[in-house]
Design goal:
CATH topology of the largest domain: FAD/NAD(P)-binding domain
CATH class of the largest domain: Alpha Beta
Number of helices: 12
Helix content: 25-40%
Strand content: 15-25%
CATH architecture of the largest domain: 3-Layer(bba) Sandwich
Shape: globular
Number of domains: 3
């Protein structure tokens, strides 16, 4: 029976980085991957979707060329096979590079196959039994297909199978009006598909503030995306070669008929086929592995990192999981999950950058909150680029002077938001940024201006 110092199950964002660090510390490491090295981010998530978003952005700018005084002859066409080929090449370079690095690394053995626990310190891969004193679970998640009526009677796409699409859907119907649905919806509308987004809630991205949701809805609708809200009773059916989504909405037709269906209604962890009970690893009611503040599971010597632990559904939270585990195991630095600040982006165009508290959370915090806000129409850089949709808002604690959160929806805001995030981690007063001299013309230069014009947050 092969003996290892550590076994890592899964090669998502946390797994390979952890393997390299442990191997660099002299440990003998087994890495197990049942499918594609790189996990969701590299193969079906961040890397491919942002490559597609870039192609869709190019199409959008080409169609708007006359606004910039640029003359393009004829209609702008989309070659979806070339769009997909570009995306595939970017993905392959990333995946192949990571695979080669794992294959060539000292002290690391890459095992191909599905891992199942045989005991708290043993996993079986194919017919091979591997044993180690430390085991790290990094198995990620997959698209959720909810038990809505008719779901088994119609073909549907998910964020993963969308990666195989090399044609232009005539009418793409998307169930789910949050991050994945909105990104694909705007993207395929820009490619030339008719797009309808169906959302059960009364607004898009229901976790965001109401004015953010309204602004995003306006952005996608201006480009021709149809949005159906309050779809509280969705059922699916086949009608010839069409897909029919029956919706119970307050306004609009009772049915949406489309050529293709994309389900974007959430994700579930890949924890149901690992035999976790044999290791004493417990999950919550949704299947997420229960971990403590340093990502240790209920079984001694076993950790869970990435999407499968329910502590974050992003590449950056998974990588931070790796950093926390390594800090505690190798660096004598007791880092914890509870120390990190909520931060993420929605990659519509323009993007939404979010950190810390939302407006609603700030109102409910009991703090004396100050807010600074400005529409992107008053940001010189956005005006110069011809991209003036959205707004920026920063929230501050009126007593401690610490920044509580920010919602930045606008051109370049997925990058600009990091200046706020870093100040929050430093626990510095907002006056540090207020007095900073930022570069003109940029989007970030308006952050000190916002902080110099704070007003008490009105209560609803």
């Amino acid at each position: 029976m092969p003996d290892f110092d550590a076994i890592i199950i899964g090669t998502g964002q946390a797994g390979p980085s952890l393997a390299f660090r442990l191997a660099g510390a002299g440990m003998k490491v087994a890495v197990v991957e049942r499918h594609l090295v790189g996990g969701t981010c590299v193969n079906t998530g961040c890397t491919p979707t942002k490559a597609l978003v870039a192609s869709a952005y190019a199409a959008r700018i080409a169609r708007r060329a006359a606004e910039y005084g640029v003359v393009i002859g004829g209609d702008v066409g989309i070659d979806m096979r070339r769009v997909k080929a570009r995306k595939d090449a970017i993905v392959a370079a990333s995946r192949d590079g990571l695979t080669s690095a794992l294959d060539g690394a000292a002290n690391i053995t890459l095992h191909r196959g599905h891992a199942r626990f045989a005991s708290p310190h043993e996993v079986v891969v194919a017919s091979e039994r591997l044993r180690a004193g430390r085991i790290f679970i990094n198995v990620g998640g997959r698209a959720l297909a909810p038990p809505m009526p008719g779901i088994n009677e119609v073909p549907y796409l998910t964020n993963s199978s969308m990666m195989d699409v090399d044609f232009l859907p005539q009418h793409l119907v998307i169930v789910g009006g949050s991050y994945i649905g909105l990104e694909f919806g705007q993207m395929y509308r820009r490619f030339g598909s008719r797009v309808t987004i169906i959302e059960m809630a009364p607004r898009l991205v229901r976790h965001e503030d109401e004015d953010v949701s309204a602004a995003i809805k306006d952005i996608v609708e201006r480009e021709g995306v149809e949005v159906r809200l309050n779809a509280e009773c969705i059922s699916l059916a086949k009608s010839g070669d069409k897909i029919v989504a029956k919706v119970d909405c307050t306004t609009g037709a009772p049915e949406v008929v489309g050529s293709h269906l994309l389900l974007a209604v959430g994700r579930r962890p890949n924890t149901d086929d690992l035999d976790l009970d044999k290791a004493g690893v417990q999950c919550d009611e949704r299947g997420y592995i229960i971990v403590d503040d340093q990502l240790q599971t209920t079984a001694p010597g076993i950790w869970a990192l990435g999407d499968c632990n329910g502590k974050g559904a992003f590449t950056h939270t998974a990588y931070n999981d790796f950093e926390i585990v390594v800090a505690n195991l190798l660096d004598h630095d007791p880092r914890r999950v509870s120390e990190r600040i909520t931060a993420y982006a929605l990659y519509t165009d323009p993007p939404l950058g979010r950190v810390g508290m939302s407006l609603a959370e700030a109102r409910n915090s009991g703090r004396r909150v100050l807010a600074g806000e400005r529409p992107m129409t008053r940001v010189a850089r956005a005006v110069e680029k011809g991209e003036t949709q959205g707004f920026m808002r920063i929230l501050v604690d009126g007593d401690s002077k610490e920044i509580l959160g920010a919602s930045l929806l606008g051109s370049g805001c997925d990058e600009a938001v990091h200046a706020i995030l870093d100040l929050m981690y430093a626990k510095a007063p907002y006056t540090v940024m207020q007095r900073a001299m930022h570069i003109h013309p940029t989007v970030s230069e308006l952050l000190p201006t916002l902080l110099g014009d704070l007003k008490p947050l009105t209560q609803h």
